[in-house]
Structure formats: structure tokens, C-alpha cells
């Protein structure tokens, strides 16, 4: 039976959609990780839910223990991951309320450890990133979205910034010129670490706002939370109905 993980990002903290759930604490070389294990269907597919920012959104994006989280999921036997992420949009074809199934990233993070392989006994490992986000999961989710009429875009380039501040309009203009579609603070290094461990990883990026300089007003974290809350039902349905992937 395939083991699937859902990493809940900003605004996705609730695990009440999992039946027969139990809490697990996984000890990793990078620190302990709390995971909730449960089921979403009668077939018994195991689903592991992990809050990226903690249950009370207490961990900012640049301080998330990305290595511990991905290591823990691999350790419990997870093979496929659906991760949610709140993002700003640089592309008018990806308006607030839409879900972008990312297929590429641009990495503008600065202070994060983004590899499990730091030399020593594990050696030097260079992981292929031609297809960083799993095309299989994207296809399954996109089919669900089309069937259900959800505003979902299959493919988009995620620009990862360090945060926790939002971007300047000049940065957003530069990212757009470089080919970015959406901007957020968490998909890197999560996607890289998942690839390093051979996990099939996808990001469901929910657009919560137009990015700085495109938005007609200054950005607030509250508007990100509000937009996430408004679209939570369909985001969860998209995830749940896509299982078993
Ligand atoms: N920038 C970076 N991260 C974000 C944004 C944004 O505009 N919106 C939601 N997360």
C-alpha cells in the first residue's frame, strides 16, 4: 500500500479530515518531528500529515527544519508528498484563488541548508533537478481539478525567496523577467531534499495575492491567511480526492 504525505503550509493546520488518526513522534538526526498518521478512504491508504510551520504557525519559513521533516517522512516509508504553499502571483494568468501545480523553481534563498549530502561518509552527491516536481502527481491532481472544475494550472515556476519579509516590487519585476510565475518562501529546500531521498514531491501553490508592485495595495500576512481560509475547502478536496495518487 502506497504511503502518502501531505505537508500543510500556511493556513493548512487542521488534520480533522484524517480518520483513525494518531500522533507519531519521529526522532531524526536533525531533531524530532511530529506527524499525524491517518486515512482518507476505505481502502486504507496511509496518509501522513505534517505541519510545516507548526500547529500554531510558530515557525517562520527560514527556520523550518526542512531536513528533519523530509527525513522523517522517508523514515516512516512515505513515497509521495503533496505539499501546500501560499504564494504571491507574478503572472496575471494565475490570479488569487487559483492553484498552481509547480513544475520548476528558481532558488533565491540565502541561509538554508539545502542538502543531506555534506561530504564525509555520505560522499558528494549531485542530484538531478531536471524535473524537480513529480509529473505523475501533477497529472493526477490536475485531472481531479478539471473533473471538479477547480481553477488549477498545470505547470508554473516557483520563485523561492528567503523571507520572512515580502519582496520589493523591483525584485518581483526581476523574477518575472527570469521566468518566475509565483513567489513563496518554502518550496526550496523542501523539493530539493525530497528529490535527494528519491521521493516523488509536488507543490500545490495556492495564489493568495498578486505580488508586491502588481498588487494595488501593500501586502499583509492577514490577507494571505484570509485567502487561504476562503479556498481551504476546495484545496483539501483536491488533495483528498487525488489519493491514492
Ligand atoms: N511573497 C512571498 N511569499 C508569499 C506571498 C508573496 O507575495 N504570498 C504568500 N506567500
Task: Describe the fold and architecture.
With 245 residues, this protein is an alpha/beta fold. The chain has helices at residues 66-75, 135-148, 169-177, 187-196, 221-242; strands at residues 4-8, 19-28, 31-39, 46-51, 80-89, 99-101, 104-108, 152-154, 157-161, 182-184, 200-210. Strands 1, 2, 3, 4, 5, 6, 7, 8, 9, 10 and 11 form an eleven-stranded mixed beta sheet that branches. It is globular. Bound molecules: hypoxanthine (HPA). Hypoxanthine is lined by residues 86-88, 161, 166-167, 183-185, 208-209, 211, 219, 224. Hypoxanthine (HPA) is lined by residues 86-88, 161, 166-167, 183-185, 208-209, 211, 219, 224.
- Strand content range: 25-35%
Average pLDDT, rounded to a whole number, is 94
Order of helices and strands: EEEEHEEEHEEHEHEH
Number of helices: 5
Shape: globular
Write a brief caption for the model:
With 245 residues, this protein is α/β, with parallel strands linked by helices. The chain is 27% helix and 29% strand.
List keywords for this structure.
eleven-stranded mixed sheet; 245 residues; 29% strand; 11 strands; 27% helix; binds hypoxanthine; alpha/beta; globular
Write the layout of secondary structure elements.
Layout: E1 4-8, E2 19-28, E3 31-39, E4 46-51, H1 66-75, E5 80-89, E6 99-101, E7 104-108, H2 135-148, E8 152-154, E9 157-161, H3 169-177, E10 182-184, H4 187-196, E11 200-210, H5 221-242
Parallel strand pairs: 1-4, 1-5, 5-11, 6-8, 7-9, 9-10
Antiparallel strand pairs: 2-3, 3-4, 5-10, 6-11
The structure holds hypoxanthine.
Hypoxanthine binds at residues 86-88, 161, 166-167, 183-185, 208-209, 211, 219, 224.
